[in-house]
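User: Show me a protein chain along with its predicted structure.
Assistant: Here is one chain, sequence first, then structure tokens.
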Amino acid sequence: MNKPVDRLNLLKPAERPFGEDPATSYTLPASWYYDPDIYDREKFAIFYRSWHYACHESQVAERGSYLTTRILDQNVFVIRGDDGELRGFHNVCQHRGHELLSGEGRTKLIVCPYHAWSYRADGTLAKSRNTETSPGFKACDFALKPVRVEVFLGMVLVNCDPEAESFDSMMSGLREEILSYVPDAGSLVFSDRRRYDVASNWKVLMDNFLECYHCHVAHRDLVDLINMDAYETHTHRWWSSHCSRGPVNAESSAYAVKTSVDFSYAAWFVWPNMTIWGMPGEPNLSVLQMNPVAEESTMELLDVFTTSETLSDEMVSACRYLDEVLQPEDIGLCESVQRGLKSIGYNQGRFIVDAGRTELSEHGVHHFQQLVRDALAG
């Protein structure tokens, strides 16, 4: 059944070297964006070992409040305990594997809908019907399995790997840089969520975020907003910055900026699939995370944090621009790229990297692809 496809793939250009120097390197081969084997390897080599954005701390501020999230096919939840501690667990009953919680809410006891096994917010088993006379049954053997939890500038992060390096340590320097653009970042609250289903591999979306080579061509309103002459991309070990200091066009075609700021764009990539944005205007941050669903399908979640649970008029305009203009533009680009990657007339491209690392340079994309390549190799 697959042989005709395999024979056609032989017509693709031969693989060319991915190099350490972005100025001379070729991109990852096209098959890395649709091969089921690559996708399966990414689960274990990347996602089950990395930090994943779950929610904002303000969403789980009260005792007993919880929120569920997924890391590919892994279902986890975070919950605020009676002691005020925020903890995370795999969202699965230790009896027969039924999922425990859904969505978000508040509860005094986590009760399995299948056989009513019940757990406290610290993960310990509180009640298990008809086990009193079961030989050798010990409640302590059936506590929920924990996941790592950290809070970073109000963002709740989870990690399935118990041996993972702390997020703050991995992302050294990120906290300080975000605060230099948005000093109030740590005191913001959750305000809004948007969801986008995209017919492309998650890495296509990441590649697109990590360069502004396409901005003048595809994002007319964004270019009208940003001081492109000051746009710079800087790569670090596990993150990169994409920022523009200097004056913003307060009356741009994107949206009107009413609050005085000293930057026109601030965005950060955080390994592996998280992006953080600071839009010009009143204090705000957004998280846009590219969550893989399948080899050629991604679910994006865009969460917005501002000074109030209700968006101001200025932030309503900014979010409308993101939702109705910028996101559709980028989604259209990425879905076209995903289709193009299947062509037998394409296999790899070249990173366009100039000596000055200007706004047109793609060294940020190379940095990300190098991380992917290293993860799957190791």
